[in-house]
Write a structure and sequence with these properties.
Layout (H helix, E strand, L loop, with lengths): L2 H12 L6 E2 L4 E3 L7 E9 L5 E7 L3 E12 L2 E7 L2 E3 L3 E5 L5 E7 L8 E8 L4 E9 L2
Parallel strand pairs: 2-11
Antiparallel strand pairs: 1-3, 2-3, 3-8, 3-9, 4-7, 4-10, 5-6, 5-9, 10-11
Length: 137
């Protein structure tokens, strides 16, 4: 039943079109004392047209950027990107060591177990509002 509110939230910005939805299991990494945090989730696009995830916002962060993790031998680095592709009838996985959302300039320390509100923005003008728990993994 947890998907229903997320799906309905997506419908707000998308009219009656098939809406992007977040699958269960998304989370925000808890890092005590850090001015940043990373968010991970899986998005599903049931529609017939590809979309792009363009950005996000949250009341707990000054800004949210889209990042990808690059590996050069044994060295990992992150790079900011303009958008993530969300294929038609496909999924976008944001996960540790890969694509993710960086919550930057946190306005306050995050608390283990709290829920962080995010609003995701897509290339078709739709938005998806969701809450992700803060977890230590």
């Amino acid at each position: 039943m947890r998907l229903l509110p997320v799906l309905l939230a997506g419908l707000v910005g998308a009219g009656l079109a098939l809406a992007v939805r977040a699958l269960p299991g998304g989370w925000v990494r808890y890092v005590p004392g850090s001015p940043t945090a990373a968010a991970y989730l899986v998005l599903e696009n049931p529609g017939p047209k590809p979309l792009k995830l363009l950005g996000a916002e949250s009341p707990v962060a000054g800004r949210i950027s889209l990042h990808t993790t690059l590996r050069d031998g044994s060295v990992l680095s992150m790079r900011s990107v303009e958008a993530f592709d969300l294929p038609a009838k496909g999924r976008l996985e944001l996960k540790p060591g890969g694509n993710h959302l960086m919550l930057e300039a946190l306005k306050r320390p995050l608390k283990l177990g709290e829920k962080v509100t995010l609003v995701l923005r897509f290339s078709d003008g739709s938005q998806l509002k969701l809450e992700l728990p803060v977890e230590m993994r």
